[in-house]
């Protein structure tokens, strides 16, 4: 279940996964590896900073 409220400039796990073309488990792996940090939310429904997600996307496109 997605959080009902996500502050402006942030994305849910599902939105991050869709943007990066990966699954929710891929998002969890990025967090575990330290490439993506949670910006808030709850342990079960975190949200992430949009700028950080777009930086990861830019790295993937450039590679």
Describe this structure in words.
This protein has helices at 13-20, 24-32, 50-62; strands at residues 10-12, 38-41, 46-49. The longest helix is centred in the C-terminal third of the chain and has 13 residues, at 50-62. It has a three-stranded antiparallel β-sheet with strand order 1-3-2. Strand 2 (38-41) and strand 3 (46-49) form a beta hairpin. 16% of the residues are buried. The chain has 63 residues and is of the alpha+beta class. Helices cover 48% and strands 17% of the residues. It has one domain: Multidrug-efflux Transporter Regulator, Chain: A, Domain 2 (Orthogonal Bundle).
Query: Hey, roughly how much beta strand do the residues contain?
Result: 15-25%
Helix-strand string: EHHEEH
Q: What would the CATH topology be?
A: Multidrug-efflux Transporter Regulator, Chain: A, Domain 2
**β-strand number:** 3
Structural class: alpha+beta
In the CATH classification, which architecture applies?
Answer: Orthogonal Bundle
Instruction: Please work out how many helical segments DSSP would assign.
Output: 3
> What is the mean pLDDT?
93
- Amino-to-carboxy terminus distance: 33 Å
Summed up:
The protein has 63 residues and is an alpha+beta fold.
How would the blueprint of this fold be written?
Layout: E1 10-12, H1 13-20, H2 24-32, E2 38-41, E3 46-49, H3 50-62
Antiparallel strand pairs: 1-3, 2-3
Q: Main traits of this protein?
A:
single chain, alpha+beta, Multidrug-efflux Transporter Regulator, Chain: A, Domain 2, 3 strands, Helix-turn-helix domain-containing protein
